[in-house]
Amino acid sequence: MWNFIQNQILAMRWLSDLVGRALTACGVDTSTRLGGSLQFFFFDATKIVILLSTLIFVISYIQSYFPPERTKRILGRMHGLAANTASALLGTVTPFCSCSSIPLFIGFTSAGLPVGVTFSFLISSPLVDLGSLILLTGIFGARIAAAYVAVGIVLAVAGGTALDRLGMEKYVEPFVRSIAAADPDSPELTVAGRLAYAKGQMLFTLKKVFRYVLVGVGIGALIHNWLPREFAVRLLGSGNPLAVVAATLLGIPMYADIFGTIPIAEALYAKGAGLGTVLSFMMAVTALSLPSLVMLRQAVRPRLLAIFTGIVALGIMAIGFGFNACAHWFI
Fold first, then answer.
1. How many domains does the chain divide into?
2. Angle subtended at Cα 68 by Cα 290 and Cα 192, rounded to the nearest 5 degrees
């Protein structure tokens, strides 16, 4: 039963076969590089859109019970490690990319929440969510997906806690603290209202990330069928002791959400890149993208931005080295 769920529902092997038959019927030989690239592109793009639409709808419906005002009140009653953990877990049910998470980060900070708590949310929100868990399970298997989510949450909690201990409050730009945080009681939505909200969030998110999904799948298709395996192994394989560092630094300038990054990671992994190296690349792209750092600079001072970037980058590298060392546990 589990093999059926993973292969046919999560990995959608039936869809891959359907796409292959459709391309063959159109005269495309899927055994060639070009044909294989086309099958990878159409299959992965369709699969991600189907899963993404379903998951965002379900998650948004659940989220309708937890508007920002209620979330602020819940987190405001917590302190220390409990607050950081709750904030990181909250980030796992918010399907936002790193740039989309920053307005919520500003809202939480203006409401008086500690910087470390808001940074725990900022790290976990783009890094791990229920959608990525499902997609990663379909591609890499349940153990790797669960481990990725677990270490992502640990990184978010540890990073936020470290910033709390370092006393970074004074490096938040003054205008953030001066924003009046509205906290009205949201009217209770009906079931129809929640369904309408979930549909709106699904369409809004899909429109926003669709182009990144296509770009990510396109890059993945090129890597999967055109990048020489020897080159990928030499650059990102276990034989290169700095592969994790290279993957992390390569990921930071890019901008994509988790759904656009997974197809690239899948293709790199298939070419022989180390497991920890691939996960480091994914984490760097989603948590430390250059556009999000530019946006974050508007809310925090350079010192805090540099310390945040350094803590998260070092944490990502440590996770990557750890996964590479323990990769045999997941095979």
1. 1
2. 115
CA distance 297 to 304: 9
Number of H helices, E strands in the chain: 17, 0
CA 258/CA 5 separation, integer angstroms: 22
In a domain, 62, yes or no: yes
**Residue 215 domain flag:** yes
In-domain check, residue 205 = yes
Do 279 and 327 contact (CB within 8 A), yes or no? Answer: no
> Which of 324, 328, 258, 318 is closest to 289 using CA atoms?
258
Closest to 189 (Cα-Cα) out of 180, 177, 201: 201
Give 84-115 pLDDT, tens digit per residue. Answer: 888 788 777 665 555 455 556 666 676 667 88
Residue in 324, 155, 159 with CA at minimum distance from that of residue 242? 324
For 267, the domain range is: 2-6+32-178+188-329
Torsion, Cα of 279, 283, 285, 289 (10° steps): -160
One-letter amino acid for residue 49 of the chain? V
For residues 214 and 253, the model is more confident at 214
Is position 14 within any domain? no
**pLDDT score for 73:** 67
The rounded percent of the chain whose pLDDT value lies above 90 is 4
